[in-house]
Amino acid sequence: MSWPLTRSVALQPRNKKSIGERAREAVIALIAREGLRAGDKLPSEAELCQLFNISRPTLREALSLLEQDGQIITMHGRGRFLSAAAALRVERPITAYESVTSMLQELGYKPQTRLLSVSEHPADKEIAKALRCRADSPVVTIERVRSQSDAPLIYSLTTVHRRSLPETLDEAALAGSLNELLGLGGRQPRMSTASVSAVELPKPVLRAIGATYDGPWLLVIETCFTEQGDPVLFARDYHRGDAFSFNFSRR
């Protein structure tokens, strides 16, 4: 396959992701755009660097991430090839960590976040187990609802260690991305374990958030960890059942 490099391709605008992660996404977009299949060879490092106008170390970081994901295979002396696992790519894979804010933006929503309550309290047994702390450790639970055009999409109860938040709890900051807020203190969540089940949202909650949808909600119970494996966030997010789905591949 030939790779006409008539012009460079810009990476996604600067965001909280590293340039290596953005380069990884650019390579994935290139694979999809060119319709590559398992066994197809990727362009050379020199061609990719020229195409994306990035340095070789940045490109190698991106390719390393793809190799860790099992999406490409490196054959020394021959190049890099698309793996069979790459053909199993699905939109919003349940195995990929993403914040709720990022998820909604990726789905095309422009949600408004309403902060319902903030409470400081001792951790109960469930929270203590998730955050690996004593049952009486101080924690903060943030209750929020995310809506699109006044229609509630996600009802969230998120609990974090009190020490992970600024001394003064600013309502505007708590209504924004908690991932970013935790990142300011070097406690950025990078991975998680989660379970998903279909439930009914309690009637008092439905009334409180103004939801008219009375079907099942997808409850995602998730514990998020730093890169070092420290649990920093315990979330119970109720996703409106007619607005969300989760996908997965098996290999």
Structural write-up:
This protein has helices spanning 19-34, 45-52, 56-68, 100-106, 125-131, 171-175, 178-184, 203-209, and strands spanning 72-75, 79-82, 112-122, 138-148, 151-161, 191-199, 217-225, 231-240. The chain is α+β, with helices and mostly antiparallel strands and 251 residues long. Helix 1 crosses helix 3 (56-68).
Task: Give a short overview.
The chain is an alpha+beta fold and 251 residues long.
Note the run of SSEs as H and E: HHHEEHEHEEHHEHEE
The value of Rg in angstroms is 21 Å
Give the spatial strand order of the biggest sheet. Answer: 3-4-5-8-7-6
Apparent shape: globular
Can you count the beta strands?
8
- CATH class wording of the largest domain: Alpha Beta
Number of discrete helical segments: 8
Question: What is the fold named in CATH at topology level of the largest domain?
Answer: Chorismate lyase
**pLDDT < 50 runs, ≥5 residues:** 1-7
Percent of residues in beta strands: 25-35%
Distance between the termini: 28 Å
- Count of all domains: 2
- CATH homologous superfamily grouping of the largest domain: Chorismate lyase-like
Reported for the largest beta sheet, the result is: 6 strands, antiparallel
Structural class, by secondary structure, is alpha+beta
- Helix percentage: 25-40%
Task: Please tell me the overall pLDDT.
Answer: 84
